[in-house]
Design a protein that fits this description.
The protein has 354 residues and is mostly helical. 73% of the residues lie in helices and 0% in strands. The protein contains 19 helices and no strands. The longest helix is centred in the N-terminal third of the chain and has 20 residues.
Amino acid sequence: MLFADSEKSSNAIIRLLNSRAAGSPRAYEEAASIVREDAEKGGVLQQFILAVISRDADAPESARLSVGEREKFFAASRDKIRELAELNSNPLALYVLSMESNDMALLEQAAAGGNVQALNALGTIRLTGAFRDATITSNVLERTVNRAFKCFKWAADQGDPNGFYNLGMCYMSGYGCQKDAKMAFDCFKTAAEAGHPEAINNIGGFFRDGIVVRKNPELSVLWFKKSSELGNEFGVLNYGLALLSGQGAEKNQAGAVKLFRYLAENRAHAEGMHLYGMCLMRGMGVDKDEKAAVGWFEKAAAKGFSMSMDNLSTCYEQGVGVEPDLQKSLVWKMRARAAAGDRIAAEWLKANDR
């Protein structure tokens, strides 16, 4: 069996590749389970994809392989995938082959062939690379952003949910297009209707904030809850915040803490760590534990979360959960400012070897 020989198998491959990029751990796990079964039956494409994604730190349980299993799958599938990619110019084969070694040339070939996963990946790489390049000129930046927009548009034109989501993000920020919140909402709605968890969360944000729709806190919470149930971290976060504040939902601080703790312990999510720490610090929905709170602030700070750095500065200044230490308080205050973009604070930290 080379490519999937049933609709179920074919759909599982697409769901796996799409959910891997869409922040949908539940769909990722479900699809990976089917792909694993097909790989063990000899499915060459499934073997290769599984071997590639098994290297990811956040690979779902079904996709985790031992080193021996991974090499066995690679040995059984790599040559056949390469043949399809190099001799037949198969866009899907080109894309999955590019995944193994992050080969941009192969990724661009797959995108040129219209593969939606490649188009979304290439557009994302172009955007992030352009905005991280401090030396890029305005003309090159504009051209690069326009090319990224075209990638997402082509994927969306093929009905791809990730393409619609990425296109919506472009319309929200004006990347490669004029800012247009209504177009962004429409793109997110299309992606949400196809089950895209981050788009579902974004729709909740539109109703919470009253962007191009009438503000409706209760409806926003329903969207956040749906995204949360799909396992999306942003959905979990926003649903937890709604439960914590009681805006649009019955106030349930214990329920909020449970969600923040999940993000902190299971997803290593910086803001989730911070919010769990805040609940511990104030005794909201959980027994007050200032020492444990400081521990979570430290973990969030290690991920660059500036609000936790500010909290650590206050904790060391006032001796809350730790012994008072004005020097440590000052260092954390400067780290928080540097994380927020303050160059003077960054220079101070460098000069003081902090």
